[in-house]
Design brief:
Distance between the termini: 27 Å
Structural class: alpha+beta
Strand order of the largest sheet: 6-5-4-2-8-1-9-10-11-12
CATH superfamily of the largest domain: YwqG-like
Largest sheet: 10 strands, antiparallel
Shape: globular
CATH topology of the largest domain: Hypothetical protein YwqG fold
Number of helices: 10
CATH class of the largest domain: Mainly Beta
Length: 323
């Protein structure tokens, strides 16, 4: 759901890029978000309490540097990633962040296997004058020393490109394009280096929130290629028989190809509320200005539970470093 201002912006972008026929679909499923952008001001990057990647975090006296989880029994220091001054972030519908104070993000573990990494997220409402820079071996888990880089935030629109049925509907309504990748590029600021809130769609069309939620629920075996949210969605997909299928035998084979995943879709439908309770808290993309290039220059994704955000709780965080 988005407000009138963002709807107007989306309609303008649709007119400029030729995807007006799907505007009602997009508006119906859109979520508000805030895009993260490098500020480019080196002075602001070191100001106490400023939103930034890297540098020593400005912590209140009530918060200590978090402990790391050692990997392979080696001692490690948690790596400071970013601090967000919440007064800089525009209000985002469906993401109940505190309106004051700061969030601090620390990488605490980087396991050899599995999609999850350890992230500690702290919130405190202390004023900037009450904060003090705290330095440590700040990037031992990231492998690089981060350059302090100021951040700013722009209200924006996020669409569920990680949902297979959503992409199929766009293709049905726009058979000659523009494709979902073009729409994604059109609504995203060119200089964006991350995102707060909205959907967690990867560049190859996966939904990272669902991927991690399934891992936490012990169902990483559910195929990416058939992650329909309900049996109704899957039945719609079955009905859109490809043009290359011409005979009754081919049609029967097409329908039969969905049967092996029916039980997975039924399970997803039963657990949809649990899965969709996870919301994108912060994604940070590889950032040359900040020297943030974890793994193979993949984004850092962090997710929080919606029911816990409503209580200003940040203890139960899901995170990964993944394309």
């Amino acid at each position: 759901m988005i407000g009138d201002e963002l709807r107007g912006r989306l309609e303008q972008v649709a007119a400029e890029n030729g995807f007006e026929p799907v505007i009602e679909l997009l508006v119906a499923d859109a979520r508000e978000c805030a895009y993260v952008v490098n500020d480019g001001d080196p002075v602001r990057a070191t100001q106490r309490g400023a939103s930034r990647i890297g540098g020593p975090p400005d912590l209140p006296h009530s918060l200590a540097w978090p402990d790391a989880i050692p990997r392979d029994e080696d001692p490690a220091t948690s790596g400071f990633i970013a601090q967000i001054n919440l007064s800089d972030v525009p209000p985002i519908r469906d993401l109940p962040l505190p309106r004051s104070g700061h969030l601090w993000f620390f990488l605490t573990s980087w396991p050899e296997r599995g999609p999850e990494v350890g992230i500690a997220v702290y919130h405190a409402s202390a004023a900037a004058a009450e904060l003090r820079p705290v330095d440590d071996d700040a990037n031992s888990l990231l492998g690089d020393v981060l350059t302090p880089t100021a951040l700013r935030f722009e209200r924006g629109i996020s669409l569920p490109f990680g949902r297979l049925r959503f992409r199929e509907t766009i293709i049905d309504l726009l058979p000659n394009g523009p494709w979902w990748e073009d729409i994604s590029a059109a609504i995203r600021p060119e200089d964006a280096v991350g995102q707060i809130g909205g959907y967690a769609s990867t560049y190859d069309g996966d939904d990272m929130a669902t991927t991690l939620a399934l891992h936490r629920l012990g169902r990483s075996d559910v195929p990416h290629s058939h992650r329909y949210r309900s049996i109704a969605e899957m039945e719609q997909a079955i009905a859109r028989v490809p043009k290359y299928i011409r005979t009754d035998e081919e049609r029967a084979a097409w329908i039969k190809s969905f049967e092996p995943v029916r039980k997975d879709v039924e399970w997803l439908e039963r657990h949809r509320e649990q899965i969709e309770n996870w919301r994108l808290l912060l994604r940070l993309d590889p950032n040359g200005a900040a020297n943030l290039t974890p793994a193979d220059s993949w984004p850092i994704w962090t997710f929080a539970r919606l029911d816990e955000l409503r209580l200003d709780r940040f203890q139960n965080i899901l995170a990964t470093i993944s394309p």
